[in-house]
């Protein structure tokens, strides 16, 4: 791995670890209006990201064609607002492991979808690594009870996870990681407010309590500002296929932090799954190379001993 690939891998890994550790913050926001919480999270993140967007940010946004703005709106709707809504809806009738397992299949889908969109074949090493990551994520989380609705919403969550990576590819180059993060957070804040007004009416937003405010602040500053920028910087360096491999670290980070707050345990299944995720990430990212099968050596006839003649 060269320096660019190494840095990109570390950035993508850090982003996914931050997201996995954020599940603790999510657990204390169960009574807070969903859309209002998402609005506060993304609006604050946008305000913090705008000064970091760099020079010429306004000009780059003005030069973005209508198709680019439509893609930003779809990215926010599918990969951010819609993804979180799908997970919450799935967990009403399914255990949390069900959407977690399906979301863990995102590396496989991206490893196939992105090359097909580019008109090329999937990379064998990335596909093998993605499969190992998906199996590892399943081992970490296990499978839980569900019904048809829970399974359907879990599939919607998988679509959202895939969309968060794939939809960002065409707008990442003209905007850059920081401006892209700021713009998509602003769009997601507007979409969250509209969703809240539509679903919850006047009760869509309220003043958060002390613990809720701390959790929302953590999500906005750490998970969104730092996590999004690291994710898109990593994806810029190693591509969407390899970056999505690191999403397997999300359930691993969640499993490792769960015992700290008494919401879970870390046992043999989690250890085996974590090892599979690590091996899959290493294989797909290029850190671990599969040796090429050596050719069978040709057997040469023994040279005759001239002294016997």
UniProtKB/TrEMBL annotation:
Domain EamA: 7-138, 167-283
Pfam families per UniProt: EamA
UniProt-listed InterPro entries: Diverse_Substrate_Transporter, EamA_dom, EmrE-like
Keywords of this entry: Cell membrane, Membrane, Transmembrane, Transmembrane helix
Membrane topology per record: Multi-pass membrane protein
Compartment(s): Cell membrane
Domain of life: Bacteria
First-listed, main subcellular location of the protein, grouped into a coarse class: membrane
Transmembrane segments: 40-58, 70-90, 96-114, 126-144, 150-172, 179-199, 215-233, 245-262, 268-288
Family of the protein in this entry: Belongs to the EamA transporter family.
PANTHER family attached to this UniProt entry: INNER MEMBRANE PROTEIN YTFF, OS03G0707200 PROTEIN-RELATED
Protein name: DMT family transporter
Species of the source: Streptomyces heliomycini
């Amino acid at each position: 791995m060269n320096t660019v690939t190494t840095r990109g891998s570390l950035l993508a890994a850090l982003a996914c670890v931050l997201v996995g550790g954020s599940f603790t913050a999510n657990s204390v926001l169960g009574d807070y209006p969903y859309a209002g919480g998402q609005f506060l999270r993304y609006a604050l993140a946008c305000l913090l990201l705008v000064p970091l967007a760099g020079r010429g940010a306004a000009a780059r946004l003005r030069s973005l064609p209508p198709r680019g703005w439509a893609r930003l709106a779809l990215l926010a709707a599918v990969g951010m607002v819609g993804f979180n809504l799908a997970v919450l809806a799935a967990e009403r009738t399914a255990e949390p492991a069900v959407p977690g397992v399906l979301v863990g299949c995102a590396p496989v889908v991206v490893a196939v979808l992105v090359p097909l969109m580019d008109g090329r074949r999937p990379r064998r090493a990335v596909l093998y690594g993605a499969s190992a990551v998906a199996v590892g994520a399943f081992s970490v989380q296990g499978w839980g009870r569900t019904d048809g609705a829970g399974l359907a919403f879990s599939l919607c969550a998988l679509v959202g996870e895939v969309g968060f990576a794939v939809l960002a590819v065409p707008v990442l180059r003209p905007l850059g990681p920081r401006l892209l993060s700021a713009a998509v957070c602003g769009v997601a804040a507007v979409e969250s407010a509209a969703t809240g007004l539509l679903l919850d009416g006047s009760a869509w937003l309220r003043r958060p309590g002390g613990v809720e405010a701390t959790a929302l602040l953590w999500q906005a500053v750490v998970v969104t500002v730092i996590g999004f920028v690291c994710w898109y910087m990593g994806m810029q360096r190693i591509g969407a296929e390899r970056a999505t491999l690191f999403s397997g670290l999300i359930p691993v980070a969640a499993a490792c932090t769960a015992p700290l707050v008494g919401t879970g345990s870390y046992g043999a299944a989690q250890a085996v799954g974590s090892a599979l995720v690590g091996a899959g990430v290493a294989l797909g990212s290029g850190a671990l190379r599969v040796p090429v099968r050596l050719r069978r050596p040709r057997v040469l006839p023994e040279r005759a001993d001239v002294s016997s003649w």
